[in-house]
Design goal:
D-Maltodextrin-Binding Protein, domain 2; about 280 residues; 9 helices; 5-stranded mixed beta sheet; alpha/beta; 6-stranded mixed beta sheet; single chain; 2 domains
């Protein structure tokens, strides 16, 4: 009888624990806690991180799944706010949204206004039309060629730096960097033959290549390693810590790994959750 009572007590305690809100919800700023929602800026044009499901037109992608899981850990719901890339930093800096969760790279140059809770490690990678793959057996074959990439990213500067470090010592001409309006524009220019190659994040290429089978071929490995993070206002330290703790819980319970694998990003997992570890 005593063992039965102890067993019932344990089951009752477990049930109460499962019903209880996450301890981390108490760490949220009062305004977010009372509102019951976490407002997040998103630009759904960066698959597989941010997109609209073509079948349902609903927001989808790793960022959406991860954001919803983090919000659940914090005891609130996500309120997704679509905006433009150019407006995201000012939106979080002025408090129009609480966070940016839209594949934004954690760059030290952005730390004056935004802090980042890092959740993904990836990097820029060259690719060409599959029909011309034989012309580019390695990355040095890109020297002297035109490479298109989004001017909104750090990629133009990284291509120029890679060119200085590799083409020049090899006695080859520099890469001609062509800034585009975004990754889709770079791919369009590539298909039209206006550039010889293109560059975008290695986290997006498998998705694009799956959508357009046989269209592209990667050249070499990614040329650098970057962290992608959840953007939070610089002085919102309470919210930063709450998000980091929630993400650590998702890592610990296996949810983080499952979501990365769902979107084909298992190789881009971070070793630990950090804040402002980008350079």
């Amino acid at each position: 009888m005593k063992k039965f009572v102890i067993a019932i007590s344990m089951l009752t305690a477990v049930a109460a624990y499962m019903r209880a809100p996450s301890l981390h919800a108490a760490e949220l700023p009062a305004a977010i806690k009372s509102r019951g929602t976490l407002m997040a800026a998103i630009v759904p044009n960066y698959p597989p991180l941010d997109l609209r499901d073509p079948a349902t037109n609903e927001l989808s992608g790793l960022d959406v799944d991860l954001g919803n899981a983090i919000a659940a850990k914090l005891g609130v719901k996500m309120d997704w706010q679509e905006t433009s890339f150019e407006q995201m930093i000012s939106a979080v800096d002025t408090g129009r949204v609480d966070v940016i969760l839209s594949g934004m790279t954690d760059l030290a140059s952005r730390h004056d206004k935004v802090s980042f809770v890092d959740y993904l490690r990836s990097g820029p990678q060259f690719f060409v039309q599959a029909s011309r793959a034989n012309e580019f057996p390695d990355m040095l074959a890109l020297c002297g060629k035109s490479v298109g990439t989004s001017r909104r990213t750090s990629f133009p500067g990284e291509i120029a730096q890679w060119s200085d470090q590799h083409c020049k010592p090899a006695g080859k001409p520099a890469i001609n960097v062509v800034g585009t309006e975004g990754s889709p524009d770079a791919r369009t220019q590539l298909k039209q033959g206006r550039v010889d190659a293109a560059m975008q994040g290695n986290e997006t290429l498998p998705y694009v290549m799956k959508l357009e089978p046989g269209a592209y071929a990667v050249v070499g490995e990614r040329i650098s390693s970057q962290l992608t993070g959840i953007g939070v206002a610089k002085n919102a330290t309470e919210l930063q810590q709450a998000l980091a703790d929630a993400l650590r819980q998702l890592v610990a319970d296996g949810t983080y790994k499952k979501l990365l694998e769902k979107w084909g990003l298992g190789g881009d997992a971070v070793d630990e959750v950090t804040i402002n570890a980008g350079t």
